[in-house]
TrEMBL record:
The gene is LOC107492906. Belongs to the polygalacturonase-inhibiting protein family. Transmembrane segments: none annotated. This is Polygalacturonase inhibitor. Keywords: Leucine-rich repeat, Repeat, Signal. It comes from Arachis duranensis.
Length: 335
């Protein structure tokens, strides 16, 4: 009896110590093959050291397997400190993972070249982040083929050319980050067809021309068009019934009468500095109880700053360099 117990104890210990005996590998063999090819095409960077053929790919760093299907659903390659040996382009092999839902390539300054068309094969992709890299070329129109996309972040890169109007065809898009690139041309009129009303960030580019009228149909929560060369009347972005929380139109060439604008009471941040806005500040601004950031400096505004709400909580720098604005926190108005 004692010998039988000893035998069972030995077997139990062996099962615990030996993955080969105790557990079957979860990783799908086709996914493992694809990942090893991706590693090779990325020139075997240190961050992918754990990607070893003798180990279960579901345990590798930077990837995630679905708990039910065991297929690879996430690649998240992110470097907190730039790695000198990660020097590559996005390879064709990235398109060999048919179940991939999330692809993140972030803070990789030596990742260069264009966004590979192979990404269009990832028909289950819903989250795409390629940011803070040195990729270049255009924002690809083929992204519109990925109908499950809810999040696109291509910020802080060297992308150029115009924004493809095809992106307006994405039915589930919740956020679009194209800021901090070298994009030019107009905002596509097709964006007015984005029924999902995504958060849109297009700042720090060279976009030009007026905002298309179709864009005013959107009911956006967050919008950043700052530091471009946009012109014309942007008042259609506002409205008393809209869900706007944050809007930044600063450092453009917008020109419209601010006194006629109706603002949503949901606004938290409103930055309009360095434009050509004229008229007076509407008294309705005092009713914006949630307003925390407000800046209308460097415009052509006139008249007395309305008293009330949060307007006097802003300092002089939120109002100065206008045509003839006056009243607290600026100097008193003359009679």
């Amino acid at each position: 009896m004692a010998s039988e117990k000893s035998f069972l104890l030995v077997v139990a210990v062996l099962l615990l110590l030996s993955p080969a005996l105790g557990a079957k590998e979860r990783c799908n063999p086709q996914d493992k093959k694809a990942l090893l090819q991706i590693k090779k095409d990325f020139n075997n960077p240190y961050v992918l050291t754990s990607w070893k053929p003798e180990e279960d790919c579901c345990t590798w760093y930077c990837v995630e397997c679905d708990r039910k299907t065991n297929r690879i659903v996430t690649i998240n390659i992110y470097l907190s400190v730039p790695e000198t040996n990660f020097s590559a382009k996005i390879p064709d092999s990235i398109g060999l993972l048919p179940y991939l839902q999330t692809l993140t390539l972030h803070h990789l300054p030596y990742l260069t070249g264009p966004i590979n068309p192979a990404i269009a094969k990832l028909t289950n992709l819903n989250f795409l982040q390629i940011s803070r890299t040195n990729i270049s070329g255009p924002v690809p129109a083929f992204l519109a083929q990925l109908k499950k996309l809810t999040y696109i972040d291509l910020s802080f890169n060297n992308l150029s050319g115009s924004i493809p109007p095809e992106l307006g065809q994405l039915p589930k898009l919740e956020a679009l980050h194209l800021d901090r690139n070298h994009l030019s041309g107009p905002i596509p009129a097709s964006f007015g067809s984005l029924k999902s009303n995504p958060d849109i960030y297009l700042s720090h580019n060279n976009l030009s021309g007026p905002i298309p009228p179709s864009f005013f149909r959107l009911n956006l929560t967050r919008l950043d068009l700052s530091r471009n060369k946009l012109v014309g009347d942007a008042s259609g972005l506002f409205g008393a019934t809209k869900a706007t929380e944050t809007i930044d139109l600063s450092r453009n060439q917008f020109a419209f009468d601010l006194s006629k604008v109706k603002f949503s009471k949901t606004i938290i941040s409103l930055d309009l500095n360095h434009n050509k806005l004229y008229g007076a500040l509407p008294a309705s601004l005092t009713a914006l109880e949630n307003l925390q950031l407000f800046n209308v400096s460097y415009n052509r505004l006139c008249g007395k700053i309305p008293v009330g709400g949060n307007l006097q909580k802003n300092d002089v720098y939120s109002y100065f360099h206008n045509k003839c604005l006056c009243g607290s926190p600026l100097p008193k108005c003359s009679n």
